[in-house]
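Protocol step 4 of 5: obtain the predicted structure for the target chain.
Materials: sequence only (see below). No template structures provided, no constraints applied. The aim of this step is simply to have a reference model before the mutagenesis design in step 5. Sequence pasted as it appears in the construct record:
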Amino acid sequence: MASDADTSGLLDGAQPFVISGRPLSDIPAGWQAVPLSSFKSFDEIRNALETNALGPDVRGVMYDYEKWRFTPAEEQQNPARYLKQAADLVHARGLLFFTAPAVDLVTVLAPDGDRKHQDETYLRLGLAADAARYADVFDIQSQRFERDTELYAEFVRAAAAQARQANPKVMVLAGVSTQPSGQHVTADDILRAIEATRDVVDGYWFNIPGPSAYSPAVTEFRPDIAVDVLRQLAGR
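Step 4 output (structure tokens):
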């Protein structure tokens, strides 16, 4: 992204939140990027803060809790219990607190629910409200729906409204991805999702996954799709 003039120019001065496996020095200074550290459990957050393991440039902490082996079962089953504790620890260090509950948590919280309509169950369970209540930034993990623009838009609008009702000050991001849950998507799919929701969110969390233990269904690392999306946005 940094090597593409159109993409890099679009992000100049945008202060994007960035989680990167590379040193922040690789990111153009003109972006004024805000570096974050992401954790999958409450204990990871607590341990990192207690041991001063965060880099000196880190400005925020993300609690990315999902139905996977990286988030303990008790946190999947009762995330609201841990959210305020995590927020208090993070805020005590003067850092921003980000939350990103995965939609698949509904299969833990409502195992007898309709798995074909997990978006509806997510909203009924109030996962957006719980995530936003003590957060500075809340990410709607909506990327799994991005190939269905209408469904994506309906879910994002409802989740954003629920989050802001719980916390009017929260910044709301919607998730987009180059290969959500292993689905093959195009730049046009992502652009349609953005155009349908950009009036109800403050920005987007652009996930560019590669094959890993965190994304086992992903088969390809496709930053080229992300560059294409941003290049087209820069031209609009």
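Step 4 remarks: Residues 5-234 form a domain with the TIM Barrel fold (CATH 3.20.20). The chain has a mean pLDDT of 93.
Proceed to step 5.
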